[in-house]
Amino acid sequence: MTTDSSVYHGPLFRYTDWWPPLLIIVLLVVSWVTVVRRAGDDDARAVRDAEVIQANIAQAVVNHTGQLIEWIRLFDSILATCPHPETARTIVNTALGRNGAFLRLMQFDADGRLLMSIGKAPEPWLRQAAMSFAVSVKSDFSERIAVGAAPAEEQAQAWMLPVFYRPSSAGNSAHSFLVVLIDKGQFQQFFGNIVLGRGGEIVLLSAEGRELLRLREGRLESVPPRGTSRQLARLEGLPGVRDNPLVAFRTVPTTGLSVLVSRPRDQVLMENHARQSAYMGSALLLTLTMLALTALWGTAAARRSKLVHSLEDALANNEQLIRQIGEEKETAYIMATHDKLTGLPNRMFFADLAQRHVARARRLQGGFALVFIDLDRFKPVNDTFGHKAGDQLLMDVANRLRDCVRQTDVVSRFGGDEFVALIGDLRNNQDVSVIAGKFIDVLSRPYAGIVPDTELRVTPSIGIAFYPDDAEEIDALLRQADMAMYRAKERGRATYAFADPALNRRYELSNQIEAALPVAIERSEIRVHYQPKVSLADFRLTGLEALARWEYAQMGTVSPADFIAVAEKCGAIIELGDYVLREVCRQQREWLDAGLPVVPVAVNVSPRQIGADGFFVRVEKILAEHGIAPALLEMEVTETGVIETDGAFIETLNGLAALGIRIAIDDFGMGYSGFSHLRNLPAKQLKIDRSFVRNIRNDVSDAAIVSTTISLAHNLHLETVAEGVETPEQLAHLKAARCDQAQGYLFAAACPPAEARELLVRGAILPVIAAEGKA
Amino acid sequence: MKILSRFLLIIAALGASPAVLLPAHAQTCESPTVIRYAMVPLREIELDLRRRESLFKRMTELTGRPVEVVRATSYRSVVEGLLRGAVDVAELGPATYIEATKGDRQITAFATTERVEGVYQLRGAHYQSMLVVLAKSDFSDIDTLKGTRLALTDPGSTSGAMLPRKQFVGRVGMPLESYFGAVSYSGSHARSVQALVSGAVDAAFIASAQLEEAHLAGKLRKNDVRVLWTSGPIPNDPTVYRGQLCEALKRRIAEVFLGEDAGTALRDYMAAMNAERFVAVDDSLYAGIREVLEAPPPTGR
Q1: Tens of pLDDT along B229-277?
Q2: Which of B196, B211, B234 is the last residue of a domain?
Q3: Quick one: which of A148, B4, B157, B183 has the fewest CB in 10 Å?
Q4: A486 and A411 co-located in one domain
């Protein structure tokens, strides 16, 4: 299963596909809410802004007008205070020229008669207006300011704005006054460029509310021809304005003049609405664009995910195909290399595996065995119970074989009822014998459950060949094993044979022994001989070692080494051991009853014997049966046996020692156990192996070993017994090394009970110096 | 306070030139130390000043006096300045010239321009008042203009106000304020063009010379406006000096415009004014227009 991240495994749309359009929709909603809410706020804000602007403009006009009035006051004071009238007039004239607002200045007396004019002489309408002003201000003495207008028919003079100024006279009855003509064009120059929008007006009103000038959209309105005030009419007459014009109203201090700045409210809102429409338009355009893009995106995403799906399907198909091919290949491989019925490697694959073992064995200089297994009497099973039963039997056989070998070994089926096992990492040929025996044992057990109410039985015939001893090629090895198997069949089935004839002889012998031994024990064909142990100090007889001798009719005398090994292997050692023990005790009883000076008799016990259930009890029982004191019995345990045993074994040994039986370590020096191990044993005696004793004269190192062993044994309070002492030189050496006792041909070979009786009687044995020892 | 300090400054300035402080009639003629120059506002004053740099330079060269420009805020302010003796040389319109001479007969017109023929402008020393509307508007003739918004320039302008009030009202039979829905003064011809183009007004009376100037400046393309009415020919604007000035100074001032090398010295100025040359004039050139303007107002009803 691929985990490639580029492969799309999700549903048609994943959540990651949805967030961009969702985000867009949220943004649009927020935008629209903002736009709509702002639209409402904007109107109020626009009105507020407009009002502020208008108020500022009105204030600017007020300031400007106020300054003009200030100038007029200044002119008046120059003219009133300057002592030289001509000079005063010149100064004022120059000042008038500096300010474009002033067109002309005239001075009238309190009765309205012209005193002087800087500039053109007053027109008749001006004289008349001055007269009217004089009359109107005559009754009081405070400062008076009035603004008049040119008559409507004097169109050319329409922009002349006459300002009448009379200062406060502080009680003086007659004070002249000034008439200053102000140019309306000057207002236009100052304020005409102010953009107030459509319908925006700046109006200057007199104290009586008369319109003095009207600046509409930056242009000065022409004064109406009839000369009537149009101010209110205009304000009220214009549609939309009457409803609610935005008006800023300011008065010019001390003059009575006022300034009106107005704009139609709908104009202000219209501009605002135009701006809002632009916003709305933009928002709408943005919305449509976004939606279009989202739609496009959605289409593209759908198409993409469709493609991804197809791709995914294709990939899944491919994957399945690949998996199928892989499985088929594996199946084909297994079928080609394994037996269909049992699942074991077939002949071809076995050859391959065996070849690898050959390579490995060559590299490690090791060896392995080929075990050829053929089932005896398989064909009758097949014929009687049918192929199905035969097949099931073969499967069971395969399973049993598999269970018998290690993981590293190979079991294969060569076809029919032929199996071949490869057993690697061999220590010695004996291992294979054990395994072959196990095969025979396991395969010979009944097969239940294959045929109802019947237990099938088959036995194997086994042939064994060794690499590299028997052959170095697999084929040759197989041939050798096959031939060995046939030999096994000839020998009588349920048995095994080696390819090597020598091995076969030993095997045959051991087989014969194994078969005959129980019978021999039963018929008491095993004789017990006794070999004396002699004290080296005085050659006195110190003990006897009981040794089993078997006179076998077919084979003659059987070597103890052979039959004891077989007995060990097949388990008969226990019976044999008990038999010897009982025979020794019987003999001791006999000698005791005869009044002979008995010495302790030693029996060899194998670890298997000691480990067997109830050994201690049996020993106790046998001793009691014959009324033999434990002190008259010794037990010899091999050093090798001691090393390979466990705590229970030691416990039994301790028990025996506690009973009073002396324990001796036999064949010491072969097992490399060392002395530290001996500390834990209840041993009293150490028997030095004959192989050391044999070379004691020729091999310096062996002599040293023997001396050292003796010395160390003494340190552990162990008696030492040298085995196999045959020559006087050996005796000399051993004596020099302070060995305690000796045993061997130099003194006496193992002898039947009758001869042993004589030795007991003699009590001492001198070494046979002249003669060559012979068993 | 501000005004007072300004006044003291004026006293100080005047104190440095006693001649000015002396009464005018103490001498037979005036010979001021500066030449005070003014012109009726036809366009933005800064533009007017830039165009006349060569003129002022030449005038200073010939008269030995610096030129001080009196910034006029209306046609009327130039007239009143002349009559107060606060302006020495001025460029007037025909009507302002006539108005000024009514107050002071010594005011003398001595020069005017002859113009190049253009899209609107006649060749020579005359121009016309034209009633124009935007070509894209629905106003096809004068009758369609009833009740609309009209822009005049300045109450003292011959072509922008005076002549329409004298001649055009005869054509429609009622005062402008009655015929049109709203009548306003823009302040100058240039601003009238602007108001018309921006749609602030529906129609405007504009001098042909100023239309030509707007056309040349690219503010008005040839087919942008439609001319619905044209006045009779008006003599070009006179340049005047006050009669009280000493003769020698008058001659030198006239020489600035009419001297042999004036064409070279004032070439930039004339090009900007779309003028071919300056020509000498006298009061007789304006007799015809004086007659028209001083005629009793048409009854028109």
Answers
A1: 999 999 999 999 999 999 999 999 999 999 988 888 888 888 888 888 8
A2: B234
A3: B4
A4: yes
Q: Which residue of B has its CA nearest to A75?
A: B7
Answering whether pTM is above 0.80, one says no
Residues 192-251 (A) with a CB less than 8 A from some CB of B: 192, 198, 216-222, 224-225
What is the domain-level CATH number for residue A490?
Answer: 3.30.70.270
| Cα separation values, A530 from A573, A762, A769, B11, Å | 19, 15, 21, 172
Closest chain B residue to the Cα of A195, Cα to Cα? B200
Pick from A470, A499, A528: which residue ends a domain? A499
Residues A347 and A434 in one domain: yes
Which residues of chain B make contact with A218, given a CB cutoff of 8 A?
186, 191, 195, 200
Q: Which residues of B, range 17-36, sit inside 8 Å of A by Cβ?
A: 20-23, 36
**B3 has a chain A CB within 8 A of its CB:** yes
Q: Are A98 and A104 in contact (CB under 8 A)?
A: no
Confirm if A709 and A691 have CB atoms less than 8 A apart: no
- C-alpha atoms less than 13 angstroms from C-alpha of A767 in its C-beta half-sphere: 22
- Whether residue A468 is preceded by a cis peptide bond, meaning omega within 30 degrees of 0, is yes
Q: Give the A window 140-169 contacts with B, CB below 8 Å.
A: 153, 155-160
Q: What CATH number does residue B160 fall under?
A: 3.40.190.10
Which residues 203-242 of B have a C-beta within 8 angstroms of A?
Answer: none
Whether B85 and chain A come into contact, CB under 8 Å, resolves to yes
Closest alpha carbon within chain B to A220: B185
Kindly state whether A64 is in contact with chain B, defined as any CB-CB distance less than 8 angstroms. Answer: no
Residue A297, domain member (yes or no): no
Out of A96, A185, A225, the one facing B86 most closely (by C-beta) is A96
Tell if the CB–CB gap between A91 and B72 is shorter than 8 Å.
no
Contact A217 B182 (CB under 8 A): no
Contacts of B76 in chain A (CB under 8 A): 103, 156-157, 159-160, 183, 185
A95 contact residues in B (CB cutoff 8 A): 7, 10
What's the ipTM?
0.87
Residue A668 CB contacts under 8 Å (≥ 6 apart), including other chains: A639, A686, A687, A688, A689, A709
Tell me: do B239 and B218 sit in the same domain. no
Q: Counting beta carbons within 10 angstroms of the beta carbon of residue A291, is it exposed (0 to 12), middle (13 to 18) or buried (19 or more)?
A: middle
Could you list the residue range(s) of the whole structural domain that residue A444 is in?
338-499
Tally A–B CB contacts below 8 A. Answer: 142
- Our count of domains for chain B comes to 2
- Say whether both B213 and B286 belong to one domain: no
Q: Which of B73, B77, B165 sits opposite A155 (nearest CB)?
A: B165
How far is it, in rounded angstroms, from Cα A497 to Cα A371? 10
* Domain residue limits at B222: 126-234
Domain tally, chain A: 2
Hey, how many other C-beta atoms are within 10 angstroms of the C-beta on B120? 24
Helix axes B94-103, B287-294, angle to 10 degrees: 80
**DSSP code string of A403-414:** HHS-TTSEEEEE
Of B207, B204, B200, B211, nearest to B40 by C-alpha is B207
Tokens 């099931």 belong to which residue? A392
End of a domain among A499, A524, A559?
A499
Residues A494 and A521 in one domain: no
Chunked into runs of 10 residues, chain A (775 residues) has average pLDDT values of 46 61 83 81 84 91 92 91 88 85 92 91 92 88 88 82 88 79 90 83 87 89 55 42 73 89 84 79 86 86 88 90 88 82 88 87 84 88 86 91 87 90 78 86 88 86 88 87 87 83 72 80 86 92 91 71 78 86 93 92 88 88 92 87 71 89 85 68 88 80 83 88 90 90 91 91 82 41
Closest chain B CA to residue A225: B177
